[in-house]
Each structure stands twice: as structure tokens, then as C-alpha cells.
Amino acid sequence: MEGKVLDYSIQENSGVISGEDGSRYAFVGSEWREDLPPTRGMSVDFDVQGGNAVAIYRVLGTTGSSTIPGSKSKVAAGLLAIFLGGLGIHKFYLGYIGPGLVYLLVNTIGWIVTTFLLGIPNIILGIIAFIEGIIYLTKSDEEFEQIYVIGEKPWF
User: With bands split at pLDDT 50, 70 and 90, how would you rate the model's confidence at 61?
Assistant: First the structure.
């Protein structure tokens, strides 16, 4: 049966799924069969046993989105990284203030001392940001959401 995760608590290691039949099914974390933890709104496929959800898998590539409304766009983050990444704009967009400031400060200091270092720090930052942009764009929407928005992984 398919459904959506209504809630999941890491502390309690349990959650609730709303099935396509309109019923709610409780589940425990040991029934989750994916590497990434379940999140609210995620589309899932599961079996029912005794009124509980078992053998739960995340559904990929469905028309229903498992992303949270108002979340960050992987396309926007990827394009910002590719075109303005040396300034850390993509980090600020994703809400990573610390890494964004690292990019901005290294870039600014790189321009100030560019005559001594031949702009090498700026070139390195540009390459790193370009690679991050490609990584963002090659992830599926669900993977991007789980890793960079919900999981808050600031680097690669």
C-alpha cells in the first residue's frame, strides 16, 4: 500500500503513516528499509500487519512530491553554485551561513592579496562551487531534499 509519512520521532523511533485507504498506521524505526530517515510528507510504500505499517520503503519518481512545501530548489541552488558559487551565494540560499561566510571571506581576502597569490584562492573556490553545483543538479529531488535541506549537510 502507498501512503505518506505524517510524523516520525527519532527519539521515540516511531511514527505514523497515512495510507491511501485513509487509515493511519503506526510504525517503528526498525521497519524502515532506507538509508535516509523518514520525514513528514515523504511518499512511502508499505505492508500492513496487525494495523501497523511494516517493510516501509520510500517511493521515488512518483507524481506526488515528498518534499516539504517552501523548501529549497535544487535547480536554484545548483545554478547559484555554478554562476555565483565563488561568493558562497548557494550556501546562503541553503541556509548555511557559516560556510557561506567562509566562501565570501576567502574570496574577498583572495582579491585583496591577489597580486601575491595570483588569484589562486578565488580559482579554487570557483572550482569547488562548480563541482557542488553539478552535485546538486545530479541528485534527485528527494535526495537533494534529504541530504541538503533536511539533513543540513553543508559540504559535498
Answer: low
**Rg of the Cα trace of the chain?**
20
DSSP string of 17-46, one letter each residue: EEETTS-EEEEEGGGB-SSSPP-TT-EEEE
Residues forming a β-bridge with 17:
5, 25
Structure confidence by residue, pLDDT tens digits, 98-137: 999 999 998 888 777 766 667 778 888 889 999 999 999 9
Using DSSP, state whether 104 is helix, strand or coil: helix
**Cβ contacts of 60 within 8 Å, gap of 6 or more:** 140, 142
Neighbours of 109 (CB within 10 A): 13
> Model-level pTM?
0.58
CATH number for the domain that contains residue 27: 2.40.50.140
Residue 132 placed within a domain? yes
> Range of 20's domain?
2-58
